[in-house]
Structures are given as C-alpha cells and as structure tokens.
Amino acid sequence: MPLQFTTLTDLRAEITQRKQQGQRIALVPTMGALHEGHMSLVRQAQKLADCVVVSIFVNPTQFGKNEDFNTYPRQLEQDIALLSAQKVDVAYLPDSSQIYPDSFATHISVSPTLTSVLCGAHRPGHFDGVCIVVAKLLLQSLADIALFGEKDFQQLQIIRRMVEDLNIPTQIIGAPTARAQDGLALSSRNQYLSPAEREIAPALYRILVHTAQVLHHIPENYNQQLTNAKNELIQAGFTSVDYLEWIDTDSLQPASHTTRSRRLLVAAYLGKTRLIDNIEA
Ligand code: AMP
C-alpha cells in the first residue's frame, strides 16, 4: 500500500524526511479514475526518481459551469489498489481545503496566445484552473520532476511555460499517449461512452493518423485537408467537432509546411462525451 496523506502538513513531513536522505521526488498529478495511461506515467517516474508521489484531486476550478465536475468518476478504492500493485510510495489525496482554503485569493493566468486557443477557446478559464492547481501541487510536493501526458498536449505546453516563467524548480517531463489496442487514447472519460459510442471512438485516432500522412505529402493544401478530416469525423459518427488544428508545437499557433515541429490536435463530441487526441504531424 502507498502511504496516504490528506493534508499538506503530513505530505511535507514525509517529503522533507526523504529529501534529507537524498531521495529524488517525482510527482504524477491526476484526477483519479486511474487507468493504464496514468500508470505509464508512474512507471516512467519510477525509473527517474527514488520516491513517486501520485496526487488525486478532482480540481473544481478547471471545470466550466456546465461541465462534468459532479459526475466525474471517483473510485478511490480501486485507484489505491492500482497504486499499491504498482508499488507507488505516496498517494496524496488532499481535500479542497488543502488546495483552496477559505482565504485563497491568487490567480495564475498564462498568456491567451497559449490558453485561449484550441481547448481554451471552448473551455474558458480551464487552463487558469489547471495552472493554479499544478503550481500548488508542484510546490506542495517539492517535486524534483513531474510527469504529464502528451495526451493533454496543450496542457503540457502551458505547464512548461508556467514552470519556466515562475522559476518553479521542478523538471517537467512529457510522456507519450497510452492507447487501447484499437488506438483510442485512454482517458477516465472513456467510461462515459456507451458500447455503440465506444465502437465509433477509435475513428478519432484513425482519422488523425490518416490526416497526418496526407499533410506530410501535400502540406500546401492543409486547410482543405483539415476540412475533409472534420467531415470524416462526422461521417464516422461523431456528434460535433470543437476543433481540428495543425499547429506549431511551441507557439500552439497554426502551422504551415515551413513550421519545424508540428502537431495535429483534435477535440470532438461523441454524444455528450468530449474526446481529445493529438499526434505529431
Ligand atoms: P487526468 O487524471 O486526466 O487529469 O490525467 C492526469 C495525467 O495523466 C495528465 O498528465 C494526463 O495527460 C495523463 N494522461 C491521461 N491519459 C493519458 C494517456 N492515455 N496516456 C498518457 N498520459 C495520460
């Protein structure tokens, strides 16, 4: 079983002691409902550090008013069993008072060029919520390194920017997206999918891969290719497409065939479930 702490005081006491012994601390922040994607981050963390802390906190400030905060899956017992099987050292399970005490009055806002595009355009305020909780968890855990999934690519790039800008002394490491055999990116929200929707869902990755290949061969005509891909998603059974964009990985601004490092990012609804994915392109 991992050591389980629900207060910052208890977490800090443990971490301080381990640091005095020269241990290197890795943090894997999560919202729980753990799956193989989270566990792949944990395994990478175990290779890079002496002590792995997994935090589980469903962060209210990153959910919009009409989003799924209340229904987000919470399955702590199962999560602890998974962490236990993977021999995780510490589970940090703060309640809201440890993150947002009554007197809390601080805001972190990364430039809109990074936070108001892509998911940010459809989820106003979302990345402000992500930034404040991640900054707090990094500082609370005194982590030497922290791991984040490329699955949430925009989030990863915004966190890199924030950590560098605020000189937070934690190294941020991005980890590849873990997928089901049919290509669907693993996500806690996949639980929302009906069996029929789950059959349609892998089209998201399939269409991304196909579009990336087309863009590789005919990059000049990219607007048309992106429109075609959005139509393919609807034809495959997706309800609507929030965005499908070909972007520069650092600036998150639209790419062209001269951009050095590019990625395709997508967010689309399948019924009421919003799925996101991205690949190098
Ligand atoms: P979440 O619990 O969804 O907030 O995710 C916690 C961390 O796990 C984030 O850094 C995510 O990017 C990462 N993550 C979620 N799904 C996957 C996946 N399929 N592969 C790799 N990392 C993931």
What would you say this structure looks like, in words?
- The chain is an alpha/beta fold and about 280 residues long.
- It contains 11 helices and 9 strands.
- It has helices at about 10-20, 35-50, 75-85, 95-100, 110-115, 120, 125-140, 155-165, 195-200, 205-215, 220-235, and strands at about 5, 25-30, 50-55, 90, 145-150, 170-175, 240-250, 260-270, 275-280.
- It has a 6-stranded parallel sheet, with helices on both faces. Strands 7-8-9 form a 3-stranded antiparallel sheet, with helices on one face.
- A hairpin with a 2-residue loop joins strand 8 and strand 9.
- The structure holds adenosine monophosphate.
- Adenosine monophosphate binds near residues 38, 41, 148, 151 and 178.
- The site of adenosine monophosphate has 17 residues, from helix 2 and strand 5.
Task: Compile the SSE list and pairings.
Elements: E1 3-5, H1 8-20, E2 25-30, H2 36-48, E3 51-56, H3 76-85, E4 90-92, H4 96-99, H5 112-115, H6 119-122, H7 126-141, E5 145-149, H8 153-165, E6 171-175, H9 195-200, H10 203-217, H11 222-236, E7 240-248, E8 262-270, E9 273-280
Parallel strand pairs: 1-4, 2-3, 2-5, 3-4, 5-6
Antiparallel strand pairs: 7-8, 8-9
Helix pairs in contact: 7-8, 10-11
Bound molecules: adenosine monophosphate (AMP).
Residues 30-31, 37-38, 40-41, 148-149, 151-152, 175, 177-178, 185-188 line the site of adenosine monophosphate.
What's the alpha carbon Rg, rounded to whole Å?
A: 19 Å
User: What is the average of the pLDDT values?
Assistant: 97
Find the structural class using helix and strand composition: alpha/beta
| H/E series | EHEHEHEHHHHEHEHHHEEE
| Spatial gap, N to C terminus | 41 Å
- Helical proportion, percent range: 40-55%
Low-pLDDT stretches: none
What is the tally of beta strands? 9
Number of helices: 11
Strand content: 15-25%
How do the strands line up in the largest sheet? 1-4-3-2-5-6
How is the biggest beta sheet arranged?
Answer: 6 strands, parallel
- Anisotropy-based shape: globular
What molecules are bound to this protein? adenosine monophosphate
